[in-house]
């Protein structure tokens, strides 16, 4: 499933109070832990993220303490004791077998030692697949059989939807729209390589005008820097956003077209600018470019709570009214 589909599935588990233990499988860096954090935040749940590969069995079970001649296990303070939330066991199959056995008690019995998971808490886990060349251990069959298993794949549309909401740099989203295969390109020989996680870091560096190679590696950086030359051919977007772009032509080069449509969608920070951009593009570009723009525009204005205002402007324009009906169903956020 895509990251967006995974998010919707997990949200349904929460809303329907299905507390079956759930395992999320996927390549490194595609956003598994970020999706769990989003689900917890949007459902007003606490979230405790434990990296099992960094813990020892005693860290989870607690320390034995003598109380009136009996050994009592004192559980760690980081485990939940009240309320409602998600106990997320990340990197579960990177943990050694002894640690996985301890996690099995928590997953199967919702308890370990003298500790019990509170009623309102979900127990979810995540791990990498063997084909991802991560240093993983085989998950014991009894442990694997206790989970629902959800496999998530890299998907650019899901990343772009997230990127618009998280304000990933416009130039990075435009570049990845043009070269989506570079969203995730694992290179185990290099410490830095492109993934959704590392592109988020690259965006932070790019905003600060710093070299993005430490995040995504030299090869992807070279392509990204070459792509930035297209901005010299970009039409002036400010007049278009202001409703004065009638004489401006839509670019011919695909790379510049991606930069133009993404730029207009993300720079439309209110309904009026969105309407002006929509009207210009619908008269200057073919349907596939209008569709690409419309999906991103709707996502952006939905985040800014301006989508209703845009709809009101479009309803008054006969040339755009029919287009709005066609494009509304394309928005998936």
Keywords:
333 residues; alpha/beta; Rossmann fold; five-stranded parallel beta sheet; elongated
Structure, described:
With 333 residues, this protein is of the alpha/beta class. The chain folds into two domains: 3-151, Rossmann fold (3-Layer(aba) Sandwich); 156-328, no CATH class. 49% of the residues lie in helices and 13% in strands. It contains 16 helices and nine strands. The strands form three sheets. A five-stranded parallel β-sheet has the order 2-5-8-1-9, sandwiched between helices. Strands 3-4 form a two-stranded antiparallel ribbon. It has a two-stranded antiparallel ribbon with strand order 6-7. 36% of the residues are buried. The model has no long low-confidence stretch (mean pLDDT 87).
State the helical fraction. Answer: 40-55%
Task: Count the domains.
Answer: 2
Please provide the ordered H/E string of secondary-structure elements.
Answer: HEHEHEEEHEEEHEHHHHHHHHHHH
Mean pLDDT: 87
Which residue ranges are poorly predicted, with pLDDT under 50 across at least 5 consecutive positions? none
Amount of beta strand: 5-15%
Task: Please give the structural blueprint.
Layout: H1 3-15, E1 22-25, H2 32-42, E2 46-51, H3 57-61, E3 63-67, E4 70-74, E5 84-90, H4 97-109, E6 111-112, E7 115-116, E8 120-127, H5 141-144, E9 148-151, H6 156-166, H7 170-178, H8 196-207, H9 213-216, H10 218-227, H11 237-241, H12 254-267, H13 271-284, H14 287-303, H15 307-315, H16 318-328
Parallel strand pairs: 1-8, 1-9, 2-5, 5-8
Antiparallel strand pairs: 3-4, 6-7
Helix pairs in contact: 1-2, 6-14, 7-12, 12-13, 12-14, 13-14, 13-15
């Amino acid at each position: 499933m895509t990251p967006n589909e995974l998010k919707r599935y997990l949200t349904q588990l929460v809303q329907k109070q299905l507390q079956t233990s759930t395992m999320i499988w996927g390549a490194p860096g595609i956003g598994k832990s970020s999706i769990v954090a989003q689900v917890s935040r949007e459902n007003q749940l606490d979230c405790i993220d434990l990296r099992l590969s960094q813990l020892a069995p005693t860290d989870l079970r607690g320390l034995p303490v003598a109380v009136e001649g009996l050994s009592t296990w004192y559980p760690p303070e980081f485990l939940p004791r009240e309320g409602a939330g998600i106990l997320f066991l990340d990197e579960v199959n990177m943990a050694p077998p002894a640690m996985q056995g301890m996690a099995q008690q928590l997953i199967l019995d919702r308890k370990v030692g003298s500790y019990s998971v509170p009623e309102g808490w979900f127990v979810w886990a995540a791990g990498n697949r063997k084909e991802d060349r991560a240093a993983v251990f085989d998950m014991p069959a009894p442990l694997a059989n206790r989970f629902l298993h959800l496999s998530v794949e890299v998907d650019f549309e899901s990343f772009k939807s997230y990127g618009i909401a998280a304000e990933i740099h416009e130039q990075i989203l435009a570049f990845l729209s043009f070269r989506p295969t570079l969203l995730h390109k694992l290179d185990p020989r290099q410490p830095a390589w492109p993934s959704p996680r590392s592109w988020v870091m690259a965006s932070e560096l790019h905003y600060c005008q710093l070299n993005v190679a430490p995040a995504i590696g030299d090869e992807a950086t070279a392509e990204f820097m070459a792509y930035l030359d297209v901005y010299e051919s970009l039409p002036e977007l400010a007049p278009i956003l202001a409703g004065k772009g009638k004489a401006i032509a839509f670019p011919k080069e695909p790379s510049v077209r991606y930069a133009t449509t993404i730029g207009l969608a993300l720079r439309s920070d209110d309904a009026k600018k969105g309407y002006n951009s929509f009207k210009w593009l619908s008269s200057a570009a073919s349907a596939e470019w209008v569709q690409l723009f419309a999906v991103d525009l709707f996502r952006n204005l939905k985040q800014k709570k301006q989508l209703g205002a845009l709809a009101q402007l479009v309803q008054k324009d006969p040339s755009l009214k029919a287009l709005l009906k066609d494009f509304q169903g394309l928005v998936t956020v």
